[in-house]
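question for whoever is on the cluster today: can someone run the full assembly for these? two chains, 717 residues total. i dont have access anymore since they changed the login thing
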Amino acid sequence: MKHLIFSLAALTAVVSTAAAQSEAFCALRDPVRQIYLIYPGADAHRSIVRSVGPKARHEVASQLPFGLHFNELGKHTLYVAAKSGRPMGLIHVRSEVGRWGLMEIAWALDLDLRVRDFTFQRCRSRQRKKLSTKAFRANLIGKNLSELGALLTKSGKSSSALKAPRGTEGLAAALVRSAMKTIVVTESVWKADLRILRLLDQGLRGFEGGASVQPVKQVYTQDVLHELRDRLAGNGSVFDRATVAVLRVINKDKKQIGIVVRTDWLVGAKKTVILWRIDMSGKLLAINAAGAETLPSEFKALKGRALGSFEDCASPTELAAVEVLTLSELHAKR
Amino acid sequence: MEPRTGNTRVRVAGTLLVAIAMGLLCNSARADDEGFSLESLGAMEEPEASPEAAIEAPERDVWERMTDNLRVAIDLSARGIARTNTGRASTVLFAGIDVYKVFSLPQGDWGTLIAQVYLTRVDNAPGPPAPFFESGDDTEVVFRIFNFNYTGLSSRQHLNFRFGHFEVPYGLEQTLNTNGTLRQYTHGANLGVKADWGASVNGVTKTWEYEFGVTRGTGNEWSSRGSPYVLAGRVGTAADQNWFAGLSCMQGEVLNPPSVVRASRVGTIVRRWRLGFDAMAQAGPVNFLVEVSVGQDFSQEILNLFGEVHVQNARENLLVYAQVRSFHQNLATGWEDTSSATIGARFYVDNHWTVSVQFTQALSTFTNSERNGAVSFQARYRF
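^ ran it for u. tokens below:
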């Protein structure tokens, strides 16, 4: 018994925090219904518990004209909906003060923290139904933090850009405020997890059977640089090499099944992140932008090409492909 | 005097802890690849300021896996109870640990541990406040909730398995938490046991939730005396909505249930069954709760009624409630009843402090004895 008490005391001394909430933990409930309602194709969900504390409060106060109330502080859970081990998106339940009590909203966000959808988990207002319609939800779906901000006035009230049914403007504005707080808090508190999730998404998308992603620690080793000098015949890289990442895609049996090279690319004045997917035979399977941007058509022509060196190239995109394929070849674990 | 069963209780809890520790080790053994998977989440408490390209998979030891998705709080409470007819004042002190841990693998979450262990000291109570206390001046280790819920069978949690010490699945108590609070519903007086050692199947669907369990019938302690048991279950609509309703059933032989049913007690084990209906509805800031149970204690018919109205402010840190309980039993002399009314309030001062006050007045008693009143106050601090 003494050992049990000692062990519990030691555990408590390390992990007990000032973020404890007033209600006993047995009252906690996972929003399982909401997760699978919004992500019907998901086959699992993963919880990530973090403390929402003064730092997040400061972030919200510095970015938004409204703050977090005391119920929003403490330990909170971000849920990741997944299919076959791949992240589909996030669910984050936040509470907002309503007229008759707190309303709890389950926000579905994509990995770039755009609103994917939402559902009321708890809301006493009769206006709830009017704001659950597809027409109203279209106001918010697909929007990021700044685009949501355009739906509110500077004081956080409903603006003319927010198309809400008559009489629901107050609740609609509260919803937008909640979405904005959710995005800021998620970015601030779950930043490290978001990096991993984005890596997983970038690595596993397009590779059936992929289970995990293994980043290459040093991309441009001496061997790689030497090989690139030969293949590019002294031509410089078209990339900012400090931003290039190489991800090995691993299946359930711990075997590599492909590689993803992530590079930056200037499309006009805008920098776009490009994901180059290569199979184990060195064939370019796909070249996509990491976000919603559209790539110039010359990238499509690279699909399936085998470009070994500078002599095979007639354009900067082909030179880029040579470098990417060289990285893939030298970092593949066979 | 019943034989003490504290050692048995600790052995059961110890077995559960060992099983969980084995689960943790299995968990850690399965995640030794250097890559990122869903299991890598939650590893780094603070993001590193490294460039995007220089990302390394976090290496996680057993301790990090144990503390991943872990909530721990120390929970301290002081409760004072003054009886209006005698002026007698008693106190109850609680010092406990509240642990909540979600277990995850790359495939997702697969289980939840809840462990609430409290050292409880009672002073100057007129009698044992619960069957597991020896007297009105006693100290006991109380396992409020102490169970593991295996959710790995169905990711959507259609079918989970719980084992350990959990609330008997019946009525309002199944969906609304009253552990360590002055505000209570009917479990103790109606079923004779609030939380019990055993196993259950439970789950949720789009619109329903359910739990059916078989438990020891002895409450806080795993007693070796006799062969008590409880079979209980509840099916209800989703409890996270603005209203819910549920049907419950219970059949069992309960060891030493609380005093309200003494009129029918034979020995220390009471054979009983119950069928129950419970519901909650909201209208603006007002909530209505009701629970109705019918059944038998041995061959004596039972009708137990409970109703509550409560109001919360917009921030939901203040709750004011009024309750009525009316328990009816068809004794050899005919139908008798014991009824009481309660008013109370609970205020969350901040994320740590909660203060509560409550007044209960007996309206009638089975034995037509003096109708007692009691004023209770509780301060609770969690950190």
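summary bc i know u wont read the tokens: Chain A touches chain B through 81 residues (CB under 8 Å). Confidence is low (pLDDT under 50) at residues 10-19 of chain A.
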